[in-house]
């Protein structure tokens, strides 16, 4: 087999596979849709504060590995910046209790809800504030 024949065969194979890759990509759900699906317990297509807090509470319990009832920077796994951790940590112990974590969730929820309707849709979750909240939910 000549080098030019191999190149042509490779190019043909790549071109044949391209539509398949695009189809799979088109079928993949955006992250915001996956967040809503995971958190939206009443299946109304939005997330309300109670749903957000329930998901965040469950995530807190999952992340809290050392059973000291707090999350430190290692357990938070990059979900919160050092600056945000400092602001969300009123006792300045370098960790978040579940109440502190849920207070942060509520603040991020309100920041992601500019129309103040009490729910977040996919569009609101795609904003920087919505993405910051989503990191605390799943």
Automatic annotation (TrEMBL):
Translocase listed as a keyword: no
Leader sequence segment: 1-28
Keywords: Signal
Bias-annotated ranges (Basic and acidic residues): 71-89
Record carries keyword Signal: yes
Superkingdom assignment: Bacteria
This protein's name: EF-hand domain-containing protein
Source organism of this protein record: Methylobacterium crusticola
